[in-house]
Here is the input.
Amino acid sequence: MARTPYIAGNWKMHLTKRKASALARDVASQQGQASHRKVAVFPTFVHLDHVRRNLKGSNVILGAQNCFGKKEGAFTGEISPYMLRDMGVKVVLIGHSERRHVFGESEAMLFDKVKIALRAKLDVMLCVGETLEEREGGQTFKVLARQLKALKVVKPTQIDRVSVAYEPVWAIGTGKTATPTMAQEAHAECRRQIAGILGEQAAATIPILYGGSVKAANAADLLAQTDVDGALVGGASLSIDDFGPILDAAQH
Ligand code: PGA
Here is the structure.
């Protein structure tokens, strides 16, 4: 089953308004209206509108790094997926490991976020991945199964708006990448779990991206794996010199 390669840049809490706008223009001009790959960028909330304007004329997808699990209300400091949608955002990251481990987001919160974001007509990129301790303790597949349960809230009509990013926590921002074989093994397991939750057809179509120290030098080998459909890139998405070659690696 051919799945369109999907490359996403997670800009985290980086860049100034000016630099984010310039980077958006660079990504937009490299991508243009290309249809052989999907490209998304995830700037910080306060840069969304600037980035949106600078992506004009391209099909680069505007993403947000997080959202709250309620439509509206007395939730000081939080952002509703409906507000994101209203701002022109198309996709939201949910359950990034920094949200889980630095901000202590619980599985229950993530269920709500997936549900409300899809209801708000946003696409959802659910991030999953084990810590080093969990990997060394032989818990990787168990952790993936637990985290992927958030997909239980996805309705059949919403399946084409869902993607998954497998990001082993020990590989994020550390320079340690999973080997292509390790990535393939975890991705195949994610797909098996997705089949159990949403059915075989969903498992065959939902893109599973790899994240964790992806760079130009390792992108092609990772993307060559059968079940690796793309990359969620942090550090190497912050300049077009680094990100451009990763986009080039997603040609087929
Ligand atoms: P990294 O981050 O590429 O800097 O490891 C990936 C991510 O956290 O999405």
